[in-house]
## 1
Amino acid sequence: MSFLDWADALPDGWEAKPLRSIADYVVSNVDKVPAENEIPVRLCNYTDVYNNEFITLAIDFMHATATADEVAKFGLCVDDVIITKDSESWDDIGVPALVRETAGDLVCGYHLALFRPFKQRMDGAFLFRCLQAKPIRVQLELTANGVTRFGIPKSEIGTMTLPVPPMAEQRAIAEYLNRETARLACTILSIWATCAIRQRPRHIRR
């Protein structure tokens, strides 16, 4: 069975397209080493993406420096999607985060790839949810190479196949998934809190 079997069962009006046809993408080379002749920036690093579904200004970003060209090329915009490009484990490849808030000094850091959807073809939130789906992300995992550290070749990123519904459907799907994941997160938190209270000694509960 092919990992692209889903592409043959898409609903009417949907298409299967390579990433390069629906988004610009770049691989960041901005490192953590500050330089005196560069511009001070906040760096969105690997752990910021790996540990957060959404990139917002509430995250405590690392302070670093970058050249003017790097700021222009790798500066983050709302609705950008960032993925982990390199990892010590192949199954940590392609973990996505959606940029919901940004600032002029917020830059994508090393070991990450930055996707910027074409506004008329792909919704950023829908792209983010697609990349969370294992049947989609496995394409990146299979292209990763390495021995002690794995990485996705830039040439392979643009060939990744994605489902592309009409824009109205993309937005509706993304909004539905946002609502449902938020609801599930609240339910899980409530269950956790209830269990924590029940497990406390009686004299502490009073």
Note: The two ends are 58 Å apart (CA to CA).
## 2
Amino acid sequence: MLTLPRPKIKICCISSIDEAIMAVKHGADAIGLVGNMPSGPGIIDDDLIAQIAQNVPPPIGTFLLTSERKSEGIISHYKKVYTNTVQIVDSLLEKDYSRLKIEMPGVKIVQVIHVLSEKQIDEALEVEPWVDALLLDSGNPNLKVKILGGTGQQHDWKLSRKIRDAVKKPVFLAGGINENNVKQALEEVNPYGIDLCSSVRTNGKLDPFKLEKFFKSVL
């Protein structure tokens, strides 16, 4: 029987150096650092993001979650924190990804796709050539107050599988994934990586016991 490699695990909404160290010690391949957002959990200031990123050893991914929608705004945000990855949580206006690559050499670009309908298949195919990975999440950027992640809600994994099958770049899956449904998520979507926030927290704080249980569930 073929054994599939363990998916990459990203622990998002990291709020301190101690949380970052805890996530890495339990096996995280990447951490998410949430910049200014219109809503959602885990928002911290840029100075703290920079401090955390400086204290995370390679080759762990340090993802800056930015809600900036113009290339100059994203570049400016990145230069305040110097993470090794930038996760764009909303659509990029003018699709000026080439400027990001020029101004942020060596930095990985991950584009979030909020899975609402089959329209997101075309959206993913449009941006795929310009990014290093896609992240499929359960937000809704069309609301008056945008929801751009951290919902703890599962979206339609059948749609996520269609997107995953349509693209060639790595795909992370986020939204309501926990120790009880992660195996189902892996079977149904077969993502490159899994992204977690609320399911490994208690009262908003990263919980070492929930982390341990989650990592055991994906072995």
Note: The chain has a mean pLDDT of 94.
## 3
Amino acid sequence: MSFDENTYLKWYIPRLAPSPDVINLHSSGMPAVRAEAVNPPPPAGFEMLRAVEERLAQNEGIPKEELLFTSGATGGTLLALLTLGDRRSRFVVETPIYEPMMRQARRLGEVEILKRTFENRWQIDTRRAEKLIDDRTAVVLITEPHNPSGVFSSPESVAKLAGICRAKGAFLLVNEVYRGYSRRESLHGIADNVLIVSSYSKLLGAYSNRVGWVSGPAPVIDRLRWASVNSGAGSAPSAAVGLGFAGQAAERTTLAREAAARGVDTVDRWVASCPGIDWIRPEGPGYGAVVLPRGVDDLALANRLYEEKKVLAVPGTLFMAPGTLRISWLGAGDRLGEGLDSIARALPTAPVP
């Protein structure tokens, strides 16, 4: 798998700024916020990096020594993989998953797949994990809540997975980018081999400002801090903007939770009314994975919806979940029902052979 390829983003970016008549069932985060709207202080030197880390740690309720500011969650994930693995390492990555996480791991070493399935309610298969994780495994990557389904695993199953990793000397890296939409507690501190990667991109609309972090045990974060120097330390302007977003996090998180809660009942009723489709109702984030009738080509359906109906939804194939659509209601506004009806009309009226 080539590091410079990304089928999901190559599909999405040309549709990133659709015309006003397109119904947006794609955007999984809050609308983008301009940096000046969060009143960032003037950027300075390394002290600005420490200042934003202190504020982020305060927001997360953890010691400042346990958090490192990163270039978004994607940058934090890559930093962790580069630091904790080596040329002999193996990685275990769940699927379905956000494609850059998979490409980062595959570029660095051998990858084993830990599959989540709709039939298992998108939960972590710890029995399968026990078979995959061995003494060569450096890092196991998962998302909580899961992306694209929006479903959380039970804390007990994550703790069990962390224990399986610890027994083999591996780290568990958990992406919590969408956790803030719910009232779930962070998995930070659940075990001494667990690292959390997150950001304000989706929750607060920070996006290109790249306000991310990694949190975990202080000795591991110290390793990552020195590794970040080798890869290029974070910039003071980015940290200044991050400090501005962090200062407004409580207020903007409330708005994000309200926005996510508004659409889930509508989609739930729509799923129940459409024969042949199903989903596991998500907890928190404003998106979920809708399972299509057997045999429906999700990529062809998504392309047809966009080109003919002006409805933009994510084909599950691009998240390694063929046969599904990831539907979000954060960007649809009062056109959510119209967009869902267009999907229903585009589906086959009889099972696909």
Note: DSSP finds twelve helices and twelve strands in the chain.
